[in-house]
Amino acid sequence: MVRKILALLLVLGPVTILAKHLGAGDTTLFALAAASLVPLAWLIGESTEHAAHHTGPGIGGFINATFGNAPELIISLLAIHEGLFDVVRGSLVGSVIGNLLLVLGFSLLFGGRGDLDRASSLVSLALVGLATALLLIPAIPAFDGDPERRSIALLGVPVAIALLVVYIVVTVIALRRHRQMHVSDDPGGMTGWSLSKSLTALGAATVVTALVAEVLVGSLQVFAEKAGLSEFFVAAVIVAIVGNAAEHGGAVVVAAKGNIKLASEIALASSSQVAVFLIPAVALLSWALTPLALSFRPVEIAALGGAVVFTAVLLRDGRSSRLRGALLIAAYVAVAILFFAVGDR
Prior knowledge:
Layout: H1 2-9, H2 12-21, H3 26-55, H4 57-68, H5 70-81, H6 85-111, E1 114-115, H7 118-139, H8 150-177, H9 195-227, H10 231-243, H11 245-256, H12 260-285, H13 298-314, E2 319-320, H14 322-342
Antiparallel strand pairs: 1-2
């Protein structure tokens, strides 16, 4: 049923593009674009999952890592092109924290009591912790002066490279350990797609996502102004949630069906993937446009570090419960309120 609804909602993509050409208002365009990204993110996820059946876990894992983050990557690069650097950093930080607290929280809330993969959970949390620590290298010098200066952007290059190296090493090890964990001969009762169908759907979804993301970024500033919200809050909360909505929903559905171990791994792995893959990838790719300085503000670094520590404390024994899920959600609400209060620079 959920798949059918998401498939029907794919029409929102062309509707959004048409609405832009018909001169719809920015508030309407932002709402349409945000809603369109949900089914598009789902289609990208479905396509990469089916493609992985034909390519094997190694290449499949790479495809999932690359295209699974396509909506956020495209939004980030378009925002960089528009000079919205705070929006980029905010959406990336918001994505990491959203996965750690909100998605994992709802997964535990719906999944209830159960055992988690403690070793895998700690690895994911350690990766986010490592990323937070390394991001201090370009962030601290940016606390004073112009945070967008070229010297700060240059400081971020070795940090980004180091994070990507760590990501590759950990991914290779994880693939050996969980070679068949996410591979199913019949995912969700669906007949597997052919490789050509998977790649065609993936390509089409990525192109439409790029067009919709352009509408989203172009209307973000006006939407934030009319809604009385800061651009940072819109990026760190609204855009971050929308960019991961389909994946978030998938984790919660898995948890509700009783597979809390897999649901928690989806949330934690997604968080670490953004921290050690997407953030450095965006930083390095930005040099083809305008270099993005990894000058995260103190509030962003503090929120990242706090989320990691809080989650680690709750999951230290490798057990889940509804109470822990509720506490994680409450922590996310607190972070969202903090981001709302802080606003833009």
